[in-house]
Amino acid sequence: MESRNPRRSPAGSGESPATTDEPTGDATRVVVLVPHVARRPGEEGERRRSPEARLDEAVGLAGAIDLDVVAAHVIGLSTVRPATYLGSGKVEEIGEDVKAHEAGLVFVDAPLSPVQQRNLEKAWSAKVIDRTALILEIFGQRARTKEGVLQVELAHLNYQKSRLVRSWTHLERQRGGFGFLGGPGETQIEADRRIIGERITKIERELEQVKRTRALHRASRKKVPYPVVALVGYTNAGKSTLFNRLTAASVMAQDLLFATLDPTLRQVKLDTGDQIILSDTVGFISDLPTQLVAAFRATLEEVIEADIILHVRDVSHEDTAAQAADVADVLRGLGVDPDDDHRLIEVWNKIDRLDEEGRTRTFNSAARLTGDAHPIPVSALTGEGMDELKLAIARRLSRDRVTLALDLDPADGEGLGWLYRHSEVLDRRAADNGTLHLVVRVAPDRAGNIERRFGARRTASRRGAA
Ligand SMILES: Nc1nc2c(ncn2[C@@H]2O[C@H](COP(=O)(O)OP(=O)(O)OP(=O)(O)O)[C@@H](O)[C@H]2O)c(=O)[nH]1
């Protein structure tokens, strides 16, 4: 997608003006608006955050694609106006602001209808984008795998298709390149819809292919007997930093939202000797546009299937509770029970940012939650708490997995090879008569197979180091 160029604004500002109300200001200079509508039924999600916290988040989102935020306001509204979303007085006021700051772009952190968007663009002589458009841009820039790129492009096209009330300059350009398109009698919107429809079909076909390949990869990875530990968390919680700390691998970790659109997998050996596959995932966000839910699902398959889910939370953030609730919502949407303490471990990150009092409070509340619900306070930045975290993972793993003891004929090379491929071999000793005594560990669903094939016995023994 053309918008993936980081220097380009979502407005596609480099394109030639098609109408007189094209942006007059600099399209990288953005005014950020958070409309705050009086509470209405069914808007619970939005109300978790104060308008100021939402403004901070909106500014962060704009900054995530290198936009220069020149002004940011919370706009109190009693009701949404069908034509312009905001009341006429506010529209005028903001128009002045846009002009004064020579902004070419206004980000309205709300779902705007195509008509509202168009009217506001006219009123402000600036490009207007809503939350969905901005998030799509961010996801588009951060997509790292082919599947991620295709999913975001598909979401983008569906979004465009639903908003065909105005010309889309890139489509015009495309039409210029294919002069045969747009036969007689075909309106511009019909032609645009057809072009978008064709591209959607093409991308869907490509996605099918990519998915098939990925399914094959997943199947082969499943043969590796290591459990998958997935990191989830609100955007900017510190997942990539923690991932790096745990793997000492280099993935993009920076103070940007969505540094990780696609899952990243690394094999990690814990100090206890346990091998795990660590999976970094996309940062969650509140009010995720519906167009992206499908893309999210695909990239989050790792989470759905993970043996352990680490929920990374920024406990130094004033909105940490609301963020945790948003993450729980997304997990629920994926069919994962966020209250399943058996599978989830909460990692309370960024404790280095807390003052003495905050630290004491955090450690005390962590200590109050016992057993599986016990959260692990850490600093991915300084490394504090990493040993405790690894130990917690190892404990959870050894508890959930089944340890089996078996004897093997030394001539059964094939059987031995099979065991190494399909289980974790914890111990291997040869008796005087040559018989191999093996202790292996597997996920419970594999145990039956090994019991039948090798006459293995379940044992309570665990590796001493754990
Ligand atoms: N002070 C402090 N900063 C941290 C810590 N962990 C991460 N950060 C910072 O927080 C910012 C976001 O960290 P990331 O690791 O990119 O966060 P993420 O959760 O992967 O972000 P997304 O990919 O956007 O979801 C970066 O500036 C990190 O340096 C921590 O323990 N302490």
TrEMBL record:
Its main location: cytoplasm. Monomer. Associates with the 50S ribosomal subunit. The gene is hflX. It is found in: Cytoplasm. GTPase that associates with the 50S ribosomal subunit and may have a role during protein synthesis or ribosome biogenesis. InterPro entries: G_HFLX_dom, GTP-bd, GTP-bd_M, GTPase_HflX, GTPase_HflX_N, GTPase_HflX_N_sf, HflX_C, P-loop_NTPase. Residues 227-401 form the Hflx-type G domain. Residues 1-29 are annotated as: Disordered. CDD domains: HflX (cd01878). Belongs to the TRAFAC class OBG-HflX-like GTPase superfamily. HflX GTPase family. It comes from the Bacteria. This is GTPase HflX. Keywords: Cytoplasm, GTP-binding, Magnesium, Metal-binding, Nucleotide-binding.
